[in-house]
Amino acid sequence: MSNTNIFPPFVARRSFIELSARERAQSLMDSGSWRELVGPFERIESPWLPEQGIAPQSDDGCVVLKGKIAAKPAVVVALEGGFQAGSMGEVSGAKMTATLDLAARDCQNGTTTAAVLLLETGGVRLQEANLGLAAIAEVMASLLALREHAPIITVIAGTVGCFGGMSLVAGLSSYIVMTPEARLGLNGPEVIEQESGVEEFDSSDRPLIWAINGGEQRVGMGVADELVVDDAERIAAAIQRYVKAGFPVVHRSQQVELYRNRIAALDTSKQFDPFSLRESWNNKKKEGVAR
Amino acid sequence: MEQLKFDYPSASRHVTKKAHVGVVGSGDMEILMEPSPTGTAHVSILTSVNGFSSSWKAVLDRFFAKYEGAVRIHINDAGATPGSVMLRLEQAVEVIEQ
Questions:
Q1: Is the dihedral of CA A145, A147, A149, A151 positive or negative?
Q2: Which among A84, A118, A228, B52 counts the fewest CB atoms within 10 Å?
Q3: Measured between alpha carbons, how far is A277 from B77 in angstroms, rounded to an integer?
Q4: What are the backbone angles phi and psi of residue B67, rounded to the nearest 5°?
Q5: What is the C-alpha separation between A11 and A124, in angstroms, rounded?
Q6: Mean per-residue pLDDT of chain A
Q7: CATH of the domain at A48
Q8: What is the residue range of A35's domain?
């Protein structure tokens, strides 16, 4: 007798979070359609890390694939959260910028090419300082150029999350897909605690962190578009839908007045809770059940 | 930061594939394994942990006692233990010989 039905459904899922950056990128593209650009054997490593006694990685923690998603031309850039917390250095930043530029050039030549960014990153790689900051500025400039032509879909799956300057990159993209395990925020919890004290933000309080930065809350507030369970197939299906949908008429980051008014309307004399914020910003109190 | 090099002239069987395994995270490492241009095996290691040259040699000696492929190996290491090093080497062989 088969006893497979005693296992809960998630056992049968193929976890996306457990995949490496390269496996994640590959799992999103049409089978056999892709090739990797500037792969590990080209050995384009950070020249700055060894000088500081830190081992570099042969792809600088940034994986670039060019191929097809839902039979449409696409590029995928995946950051490896296991290497230096997915931080952006000179090389990884240049790879992401060049990929977005390549997609934009293809668009201008008549081949609409979508971009998918898999962001597991703490932001700027502090060891590369200004070069990392410059890299993120370049990524944002290239992203803004590309989104005139094609959708840019950011996926934040976890467990690193997406913070610092790269959260701005996520904010500029056309769509954001998150899992309930993922977090999105400008300053990470440890940074806030260090700068403003534990009374302001307790970085060991996981329910607090997820109530503010977690995927369910971000989608519930309407600052991310879709909450998907940690399942490689379902995440791939969501991305295929957004690639087919094309870029939105108005990007979220263009709705300056809407968000300015929302922030102005917040009553900061009392502590507001995550659910009321979802209700007032998105009119969906219990939104956020992962599909 | 230490750079180590080892040669294994007895490992000379021709291989055709490449393998990239692992991640340079704490206690882990990455391996780039590819056909050696000289026809015998060479290993280069860049490690953030100094002073373990003899441990590296012991693990690699044991690995090449069983494996005879003419591979060029590069390792970026962030403090993998000898056990993890051996597992990563075997994982790379699995990829390259499949």
A1: positive
A2: B52
A3: 45
A4: -105, 130
A5: 35
A6: 94
A7: 3.90.226.10
A8: 13-282
Number of structural domains chain A divides into: 1
Query: A291 in a domain, yes or no?
Result: no
Residue of chain A whose alpha carbon sits nearest to that of B19: A41
Summarize pLDDT for A197-218 with one digit per residue, the tens: 999 999 999 999 999 999 999 9
Report the C-alpha gap between A61 and A88 in whole angstroms. Answer: 9
Structure tokens at A95: 């790879």
Structure tokens at A3: 């006893």
List of residues 6+ apart from B47 with CB closer than 8 A? A55, B1, B2, B4, B29, B56, B75, B77, B79
What torsion, rounded to 10 degrees, do the Cα atoms A243, A246, A249, A251 define? 30
In a domain, A245, yes or no: yes
Closest Cβ–Cβ partner in B48, B76, B78 for A58: B76
Domains in chain B (CATH in brackets) are 2-97 (3.30.230)
Residue A5 lies in a domain: no
Distance between CA atoms of A225 and A256, rounded to whole angstroms?
A: 17
Cβ of residue B47 closer than 8 Å to a chain A Cβ: yes
Q: Where are the beta strands (DSSP E) in chain A?
A: 35-37, 62-69, 72-79, 114-118, 152-156, 175-178, 226-227
Q: Which two tokens stand for residue A6?
A: 């005693």
CB burial of A108-131 (b: ≥16 within 10 Å; e: otherwise) equals: eeeebbbbbbbbbbbbbbebbeeb
Sequence-distant (≥ 6) Cβ neighbours of residue A144 within 8 angstroms: A172
Lookup: tokens for B83: 């056990």
- At residue A268's C-alpha, the angle toward residues A266 and A274, to 5°, is 65
A38 belongs to a structural domain: yes
CB-based contact A58 B78, cutoff 8 Å: no
Q: What is the largest CA-CA distance in chain B?
A: 35
Q: What is the pLDDT of residues A55-111, one digit of tens each?
A: 999 999 999 999 999 999 999 999 999 999 999 999 999 999 999 999 999 999 999
Nearest CA in chain B to A55: B48
The CA-based angle A91-A46-A90, given to 5 degrees, is 35
Nearest CA in chain B to A60: B24
How far apart CA A8 and CA A13 sit, in angstroms, is 10
Chain A residues within 8 A of B32 when measuring between CB atoms: 40-41, 43, 58
Whole-structure pTM value: 0.94
